[in-house]
Amino acid sequence: MTGIQDGLLAETRKLEGWGRYPTASGLSTRPEKISAVREVVASGRWTSVLARGLGRSYGDPAFNPEGCTLFAERLDRLVSFDPSSGWLRAEGGLTFRAILDLFLPRGWFLPVTPGTRHVTLAGALACDVHGKNHHRDGSLGRHVGRIRLLLASGEEVECSAQELPELFQATIGGMGLTGVILEAELRLRPIQTAMIRQQVKPAGDLDSLMALLEEHDTRVPYSVAWLDTVAEGRNLGRGVLLLGDHAGIADLPSSQAGNPLRRRTGLRATVPFDAPGGLLNPTTIRAFNSTYFSLQKRKAGESLIALEPYFYPLDLVDGWNRMYGRSGFVQYQFVVPTETARSTLVGVLEACAHQGLASFLSVLKRFGPGFGNLSFPFEGYTLTLDFPVTPGLFEFLDELDRRVLEAGGRLYLAKDARMSPATFRAMYPEFPRWLEVKRQVDPHDRFRSAQSIRLAMHSQEVPSR
Ligand SMILES: Cc1cc2nc3c(=O)[nH]c(=O)nc-3n(C[C@H](O)[C@H](O)[C@H](O)COP(=O)(O)OP(=O)(O)OC[C@H]3O[C@@H](n4cnc5c(N)ncnc54)[C@H](O)[C@@H]3O)c2cc1C
């Protein structure tokens, strides 16, 4: 259904996240101007609203099935840039891709970036995204100045670590539930070249991989390990550590040194349709894991690699989420403290093997200190696993939740599609503090998402499952 409501074009459409599970049908609108966003928030026509960026969060945090989902990616004006400091001010819908298009050729890079550049500034802040440099530079929230937020009352406020600091903290990682991020300031970092010096270090088992991460994290800004979830027995947890640092001009061969900021984005491919029955099934995933490990082992050593394929390898395949077929997939990402990391990782990997589950993309990384409130990272190890949605999967993941919780860990809200409200509260002990701020700025729960409803984030009480 398409129609004009309060002067705005609104349509009923299928709503989903990047994992394509769960899905819902709901009203949406795509404002072109901030004045239209104000109208949507102020309008009594919709019981509740939620801003959405490019929908790159995986589960159900970026849509509102009962009110109106506000697709905010067209609010993408660049407001100002100070080349003496790197401070950029932009509307929330500006994408990381657009920031790179504009600033990479001028010698500036993002201070923190997730594994895709197809995210908006506001969406990335609302999830407080982390990158390969979290152990050193923290999450995105640490690199933000002021945020202009549209509140449920229609009032617009500026908040930062100094002004309204509690609202600022609650908004970073606050999953769009404190208001609409209209503008934000982000400090870009200077770079000399568009190349990365990469080191590839294979490890035959989990202990060697963790030892490599700990040894190199203190020295190298970017580090992430790919893990072979198919390997068992004495090879359990084998993987490849990928380290990176920005190359200087002196690192480039003479053929590139004359144009050090030239971008090399790599060849692109597209998944044009839903893979029937899912291209990524246990057999293909197993084959991929073994082959990938052997290939990476052969690449061991140092090389120069273009910045964008290094940070965004998945962006080279448009619509890769369709490879899982129509039922979709979930990305299960948890963090556990360093002290309990080894035993939890072994337990989780063994449980997956026992269940006959293999993950296509499994990433292990160390986090530095966290940001607080609902922000996901804290000091420890994070593991990311992808699973196609199949019968019995959620019961198995409930079991993993128990392990993660016992180890003092938590799941990432930006990837979550299924955890229970009780698990959420136990994993996020600062939730009551966050809810107090939410109640002050949104007493009638104007901002709601499918996830906030599922996790009962509008109430202090722990509902029974
Ligand atoms: C291939 C891939 C790799 C990824 N790698 C990483 C990674 O390495 N690290 C990491 O942390 N994450 C990672 N992610 C997750 C992704 O970076 C985050 O979910 C990101 O926030 C999505 O941005 P978006 O603009 O698509 O936001 P959406 O998914 O559209 O929305 C995410 C949240 O932001 C809120 N929001 C959006 N716009 C606004 C606004 N204007 N005002 C207030 N709230 C708003 C929404 O309500 C929602 O709660 C990855 C995702 C993919 C698909």
Report what the structure shows:
The chain is of the alpha+beta class. It has two domains: 78-190, Uridine Diphospho-n-acetylenolpyruvylglucosamine Reductase, domain 3 (2-Layer Sandwich), CATH 3.30.465; 195-418, Vanillyl-alcohol Oxidase, Chain A, domain 3 (3-Layer(aba) Sandwich), CATH 3.40.462. Helix content is 27%, strand content 25%. It contains 14 helices and 22 strands. The protein has helices at residues 34-42, 96-103, 121-126, 134-137, 165-171, 206-217, 254-257, 282-298, 307-311, 338-355, 393-406, 421-427, 431-441, 450-454; strands at 2-5, 8-16, 23-29, 49-52, 68-71, 78-82, 87-91, 108-109, 144-150, 156-159, 180-187, 189-190, 195-203, 222-227, 239-246, 269-270, 301-306, 317-318, 329-336, 363-367, 380-388, 410-411. The strands form five sheets. Strands 17-13-15-14-20-21-19-22 form an eight-stranded antiparallel sheet, with helices on both faces. A five-stranded mixed sheet has the order 1-2-3-5-4, covered by helices on one side. The longest helix has 18 residues, at 338-355. The protein starts with a strand and ends in an 11-residue tail after the last helix. The mean pLDDT is 93.
Please give a handful of descriptors for the protein shown.
alpha+beta; Uridine Diphospho-n-acetylenolpyruvylglucosamine Reductase, domain 3; Vanillyl-alcohol Oxidase, Chain A, domain 3; 14 helices; 22 strands; globular; binds flavin-adenine dinucleotide
CATH architecture designation of the largest domain: 3-Layer(aba) Sandwich
| Residues in β-strands, percent | 25-35%
Tally the structural domains.
2
Secondary structure: helix percent: 25-40%
Instruction: Tell me about the largest β-sheet.
Output: 8 strands, antiparallel
Distinct ligands, ions and cofactors found in the model? flavin-adenine dinucleotide
Strand neighbour order, sheet with most strands? 17-13-15-14-20-21-19-22
Q: Specify the overall morphology.
A: globular
Q: What's the pLDDT, averaged over the residues?
A: 93
Which structural class do the helices and strands define? alpha+beta
Q: What is the CATH topology assignment of the largest domain?
A: Vanillyl-alcohol Oxidase, Chain A, domain 3
Number of strands: 22
Assembly state (oligomeric): single chain
Radius of gyration equals: 22 Å
Terminus-to-terminus distance? 34 Å
Determine and state the CATH class of the largest domain: Alpha Beta
Counting H and I runs of at least 4 residues, what is the number of helices?
14
List the uncertain runs.
none
